[in-house]
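Hi team,

Filling in the usual template for the complex we talked about on Friday. All components are listed, including any nucleic acid strands or ligand strings, so the model treats them as one assembly.

SUBMITTER: L.P.
PURPOSE: interface mapping
COMPONENTS: two
RESIDUES: 750
SEQUENCES:
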Amino acid sequence: MFVYMLNIHLILIFIVNICQGIERPLVIGHRGSAYLPELTLESQSIAHAYQADMVEIDVCLTRDNQLIVIHDLYLNAVSNVKDIYPNRSRSDGYHYVIDFDLNELRNLTIHERIIPFTNTQVYPARFPSSSSIPFHLATLNETIELLLGLSHSTNQQYQLLIEIKNPEYHSQYNTSISSILISTLQAYNLTESHHPIVIQTFHIEDLLYIRENLNSRLRLIALLTWNHLNESSSNFDFYRSEEGLQKLETFVQAIAPNMELLVNFAEDGSIINVTNLTVLAHKYNLAVYPWTFRHDTYKGNFEQLIDFFHRTVQVDGFITSQPDIVIELLEKKI
Amino acid sequence: MFVFVLFFYYLEICQGLQRPLVIGHRGVAYLPELTLASQSMAHAYGADIIEIDVCLSRDDQLIIIHDTYLDGVTNVKDVFPNRNRTNGRNYVIDFTLEELRILTVRERVNPSTNVQVYPLRFPSKSIVPFRLSTLNETIELLLGLNHATGRQRQLLIEIKQPEYHVLYNKSISKIVIETLNAYNLTRSTDPIIIQTFNIEELMHIRYNLHSQLRLFALMTVYQAGVSVSDYDFYRSEEGIRNLSNTVQALAPDHVLVVDYDINGEIMGTSNLTKWAHQYNLNVYPYTFRKDLFPGSSFEKLVEYFWHIAQVDGFITDHPDVILQLLQNDTTVNTTFSTTLTTTFNTTSSTTLTTTFNTTLTTTSSTTFSTTSSTTLSTTINTFNTTLNRSSANFLHLFLLIITFLFTSIKRSELYF
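RESULT (copied from the run log):
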């Protein structure tokens, strides 16, 4: 009897230890991570060290058609452009990335996000925006080389989720940012669905263009939000419907919806109920990766939030600024 | 079952507090050494301490770099082709900070051959533009990351070659202390430690500059006419006793801690750790590099230094690897001893509870708790003989008492 009980216990512990390694939903580090100024090479490195499966970055174009890793179309929230190029703003007071060449942008220093034209940090608990550390803007090439170099040195493959910011805005300047992106990736031989690159954007028609006109085999994700926010001209009401998802299935692998499209939240941050979007998406073989899970700003109980999306909504991954926290919560549950 | 989980959990905590410290050497191995990105990764991996090196520029700025020359890790030859000395190398002290900021930093190469020193690491030919940083930036990175992550890591600052800087009329230690003062980093409780190979410089920092910061004495193999301090003396019992008045720990080359034979096999431990502990000094040997040890030999090396040599921490290029080894080893030992103990006791408890009615069950469960607590304490004491820290015993005793009280109260929730 004693030996029998002992064996049961040992097996249980063994199983628990193994379960730690069993598949959990993907964890995607939003703009790298929350702990360093967004999208810097340092922020990406730290996301990798925290074992994020994917690092999400945003790209925009410069005046000389270089892909810069930055979230906004303007520079004023994250850089000292106002001090370096005081006369290069537009009439709205903002300095736009597309008005500068790459070598000019290299003169800027990057800091933690502030509300433009104030000294107020958007996320007060994060890295101090007043720090004198000269972070820099990265190009897509540098970001790719960081990814490949780290994969080589750590022997671990993490992936890059590249969001193309506002393709239609870039078209106004007679450039196809999607084409430039695909060419840059091709130069690094990153073309297939099993390569560690995934592309997403709010302009669904650009994803169709990438798939059918540029003939890319890379994995694609459709970002989804509400029409009235004017992120793009795409009709998200349609793409969220069953018919729309059925169409998406023909050229993308997943959807990345605002998390409020998957559940209905109350004022205090607690969850009321689940929508049918995840079920429908899964019906059409689309993975679901909601955004953005921010531990430092979520009003309710973050652990319950993650647990709900994991077990009830059954999403396939989390886009989060704190990948380390989400990974820890997910692995605890197993 | 519940009791089992509880004991397991408490033992995990005990071991977590007791494991050796892990010090990320120049940040981590995975990115070019000493860059802000490398330091950030060390922080994220959970290294307790991040080790960096400082040298002075021509305009007295503290630059984070290991060598006194630039050719191992930067593109200085391409940017400033005519600034080298007669030996072909470009020295940090010949450049201003503004000039140094133009350079890009890459993974270490042999300056004569341009061959990458550690082939498995980040590609030295990569175009990613890493940069040299200053001590101010490194301090701000540490404090900013500690603030943003809520995790408190520390900085171990190695002052490179004070005696070399003196030749240029510069007191590098004084500049380091002044920089730290400006950030209010002055006390032994602040997350800053200073180390250097120049033992007399440590005395100078402690007694002339009156610093209260923690100091570590770096030690290497003594070479007459070459070594700046007499390490043979300082690693003798008398020397260690002498050092114990001034420093908090020794950071010796690992070959001073254990004896290796010609084939690199460990024959035994030296007296260094024993004497250091006798005089209340911690021991943190350098440098544990996984890519130099094939197969499972790195794991065996770490285990030897941990359990047999009984060092207090590891200076390593691979903090994530060592942390994992320290945590896995803990879990395995804890699991096994806990399982044996609690299985035996749980079995007897089950028999008891099924035989007696509710009132009597309560009595028997109290007995059960006491029995398992005693047995558990025996197990822990056996385990502790390898730990060599008396504080561990107090902690275990304290937690045992808590566990005993807790399990008694929680009887109604016991299920199996």
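MY TAKE: Chain B touches chain A at residues 4, 28-31, 36-38, 40-41, 43-45, 120-123, 126-131, 133, 136-137, 140-141, 144-145, 147-149, 320, 331, 335, 339-340, 342-344, 346-347 (CB under 8 Å). The CA atoms of residues 341 and 376 of chain B lie 6 Å apart.

Thanks, L.
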